[in-house]
Amino acid sequence: AMLRLRLLTWDVKDTLLRLRQPVGESYAAEARAHGVQVQPETLSQSFREAYGAQSRRFPNYGRGQGLSSQQWWVDVVKHTFRLSGVHEDRVVTLMAENLYRDFCSAHNWEVLPGAGETLSQCCQRGFRMGVISNFDNRLEKILSQCNLRHHFEFVLTSEAAGFTKPDRRIFEKALRLGGVPPDQVAHVGDDYTRDYRAARAVGMHGFLLRAARQGVEPEVPPEHVLPTLSHLLTRIEK
């Protein structure tokens, strides 16, 4: 039976957009521009540590604790450089502010293969579309710079919602924004827990983007798995 869907909601990172290069490479290039030599691998490892610590201490960009997401990120970047042995405050602050700005643009993000075409086809078929993403308020600008923003009626970030996926409240907020009952909505994402299972928990349909080599959780039926984004319309219209 063909699904009677009116609204499609989308995850962004690693579903529609991905980083052009590993974080450590971007940070190392910024350091080199300031005459500071640090290995990308060192920076990548430090970043994971700094990001993890900041996320545990101040979840969802510190929104509930009075931090701005910009301050949250600048602190993560500074901590990353300090863990990597760079301690000169003035340079560390400058690099952190530059990197925060750079990650706001198409400079560091690229559209995943097939994403633009799939979104255009979905629009042509008359689906309404929105975004549900664990992201900070730079996402609108990033989507615009990558020429994807025009596909979406709304872009709901965890920073704006006050909740992160898999919390059901971010999905409920998206359903209110769309004004569509959950059984007429499908969510597309690459994370089993935060995207597929969370969407289904509020009564939405779910599609899980998974490259063949990644393997899939046993409770996901094959017709809900997308080896590539271009499989979406055939799955919906079957």
Automatic annotation (TrEMBL):
Task: Check the record and name the CDD domains matching this protein.
Answer: HAD_dREG-2_like
Species source reads: Charadrius vociferus (Killdeer)
Q: Which domain of life is it from?
A: Eukaryota
> Its Gene Ontology molecular function terms?
hydrolase activity
Family, per the entry?
Belongs to the HAD-like hydrolase superfamily.
* SUPFAM superfamilies from the UniProt entry: HAD-like
PANTHER family registered for this protein in UniProt? HALOACID DEHALOGENASE-LIKE HYDROLASE DOMAIN-CONTAINING PROTEIN 3, PTHR46191
This protein's GO CC annotations: nucleus
According to the UniProt entry, the coiled-coil residues are: none
* Pfam families (alphabetical): Hydrolase
Q: What is the lineage of its organism?
A: Eukaryota, Metazoa, Chordata, Craniata, Vertebrata
Signal peptide start-end: none
Recorded protein name is Haloacid dehalogenase-like hydrolase domain-containing protein 3
